[in-house]
Known about the structure:
- The chain is of the alpha/beta class.
- The chain folds into two domains: 54-81 and 90-271, P-loop containing nucleotide triphosphate hydrolases (Rossmann fold, 3-Layer(aba) Sandwich), CATH 3.40.50; 277-406, Roll (CBS-domain).
- 40% of the residues lie in helices and 22% in strands.
- It contains 20 helices and 16 strands.
- The strands form four sheets. Strands 6-7-8-3-9-10 form a six-stranded mixed beta sheet, with helices on both faces. Strands 2-1-4-5 form a four-stranded antiparallel beta sheet, with helices on both faces. The protein has a three-stranded mixed beta sheet with strand order 11-12-13.
- Helix 1 (19-27) packs antiparallel against helix 2 (32-39), helix 15 packs across helix 16 (323-331) and helix 18 (356-363) packs across helix 19 (384-392).
- The longest helix has 18 residues, at 198-215.
Amino acid sequence: MQDSKLAVSQVYKVFGNDADGALRLLQQGKSKQEILAQTGATVGVQDASFSVKEGEIFVVMGLSGSGKSTLVRMLNGLIAPTAGQILIDGEDVASASPAALRRIRREKISMIFQHFALFPHWTLADNVAYGLKITGVPKDRRRARALEVLEQVGLAPWADSLPSDLSGGMQQRVGLARGLAAGSDILLMDEPFGALDPLIRREMQTELLNLQQKLKKTIVFITHDLNEALLLGNRIAIMKDGRIVQIGTAQEIVTAPADDYVAAFVADIDRGRVFTADDVSSPATTLQLRQTSVRDALRMMEQGGSNALYVMDGLRVAGVVTYQQLAASEMDPSPTTTLQDALITDFPTADATTSLSDLYGAAGSGLPIAVTDDRERLVGVVEPSDVLAHLSGDAGAEIPQDKEQAHAQPR
């Protein structure tokens, strides 16, 4: 955890008068319900451990009562943990003095809630600058900073408007701007989009991802919505009854759920939003336009079990050729003599981040999809069968880490 911005180690929170007794029962393996019956104490969080790297969006997901909101409030000291350690840049929030805790909140961490709680008679700029005001920042600097972050969230033209002039989604952007204004490295976001209607909620999710590309904040995001967790999280922690039952990437959680509880969560998930071209692509076996004969191309396809291969003209993708077309030409009285004659130049392409949902139409061409980088160089291919297999959930237990091994067998 040494390279982590935030590190949580064996954190517990017990509500009630007999917290020590409840902790002893937890260590003996008693359940949350048994402890409540024996001591009257409620276990909010038990044995939570995780780390968050700088610039990561770490999502904590769980149903109501799972402990996720209690956990996030311990991260900035709003709730004191019963036991455990919470390190921010190596400094322990759990044991910090009141003065140190105030400094950490002021300098290192900001919190954004579901209910934005804007002052109704203050302008947007004044609302955004509120945190700076209470820390003593001069008025002109507060104003300048507020305008800067309102620009970042697309609300600069409304700087002098009142919250009542805005839609719910726009008001939540003000709440986000207020969190950004302090310049904190860490943002804690407790179900910030939960009160928004689905369309505005998706817009705000996209807005957050766009902002994160520029700002590279360390974000702990709380949600009860698995689709939201899978969309936003670099990694996701799933909680149940105060415990973290699994931590992983969206792909790891969907393809290899830790237990039946997680499996039930992901059973009906839209896999097309979870997996990308990069997850299912394989290294591209290619042909050189001017150096490879038709006969050699056919031999390579037979040896590799491929129905089609991409053809390169130097470093540039010239097109794709299919086995069927090349084989047919060999039997023709006037056979195709070069790859150029059989070249298909209208071929499907995608970048590595393209979702499988967006690849579905391209897979209908029957041709392998060329995965290209920002310089239009070929970095891999996606077979149509892989797109369909992953969308249907029939692609196997997990995404292999070594894609060369994953695609070694002939198709």
